[in-house]
From TrEMBL:
Domain Porphobilinogen deaminase N-terminal per the UniProt entry, residue ranges: 5-209
Boundaries of every Porphobilinogen deaminase C-terminal domain copy: 221-291
One Pfam match: Porphobil_deamC
Keyword hit for Transferase: yes
Domain of life: Bacteria
Name the UniProt record assigns to this protein: Hydroxymethylbilane synthase
Signal peptide: none
Source organism of the structure: Danxiaibacter flavus
Amino acid sequence: MNRILRIGTRDSRLAMWQANLVKDELEKAGISTEIVPIKSDGDIDLVTPLYAMGVQGVFTKALDSVLLSNRIDIAVHSMKDVPTQLAQGITQAAVLKRASHKDLFVYKTDIDFLNDEQSIATIATSSIRRKAQWLHRYPNHSIENLRGNVITRLKKVADSNWKGAIFAAAGLERIDERPANAIELDWMLPAPAQGAIMVVCREDDTDAREKCALLNDSITALCAKTERDFLSTLMGGCSTPISALAEVVNGTLHFKGSIHSLDGKDFITAETQCPLEDAANTGISMGKEVLQKGGLNIVEAIRNATR
C-alpha cells in the first residue's frame, strides 16, 4: 500500500504555496501526499514584534509538536524562520532550490527621499535585521512594527502614512503579489537562508527522509548551511541583527556576513571566497572572525538590552 505523506504547514497563503510546491514535486515522483494546515504562535499574535516575542521558532514550534506526535509526516518551513538547532527528534530532509534572497522596499508614492541619507521618514518592518541595516543607512528615519501575512502587510502599507515597508522578495513573488511600486535593496544583506524552503521529518522516519531527498538542491543546502553556521556561531536569533549571504559562482563559494547593533550605528562584517571543497566550515570561521573583530561586544550589548 502506497503511504500518503502528510505535509504540515502554516495556513497563511505563502506557507500554503510552499507546501503545495513540495506536494507537487513529490507527486511528480509518484509519491502520494495530503496537506495538513496548522496555526502557529507567530500567526496568532499579530501585534507583538517578532524580536520581542521572547522565543526562537515562533513560526515552527507548532509544526514541531504535531510532527513529533505523528499527526503529520513532514513539515515545510521558510528556512529563515527555522532555529539553527532543530527540535530533538526532528531532522532536515530537504532544502529546495532557492528563490530570490533579496529584500524589497515597497513605497507609497516616490523614492526620492532614499537619495538623501539625512532625510526624515517613517518605514515599517517587523525584522530587527532590516531595522538595524536601514537605520545604519538612514539614521534619521523611524521604524514602525509591521506584522501579519503578506496581503495584510501590503494593505497596512497602503492605508498608512508610512513612506513604505520592507518585504522579502521571495514571499511576494511566490504568490504573485510583488507590486509595481517596489525596488530591490541591493545594499541590504538578507537573513540567513532567506528565500530557501526547508522540509523536515522525524529522525526515525527513514522512508520520509528518502522520499524528500529527491527534492534537495545541494547548492542551496550548502549555502543555507553556511549562512546558518554563521548565525549559530554568533549565537544569534530573531532578536539579533545578523545577516549572511553565501553564493556559488563558477565553483567558488562567495560569503559575506554581518552583525549590527540594535540602533544600526555599529556593525562588523566578514567576507571571503573559497573553493567548494574547502567550504564546509566557512560559516563558522567567518562567525569567529566577526566575534574577534568586535562582534562579541555587539552580541553582549544586545543581550543586556533584551534581558
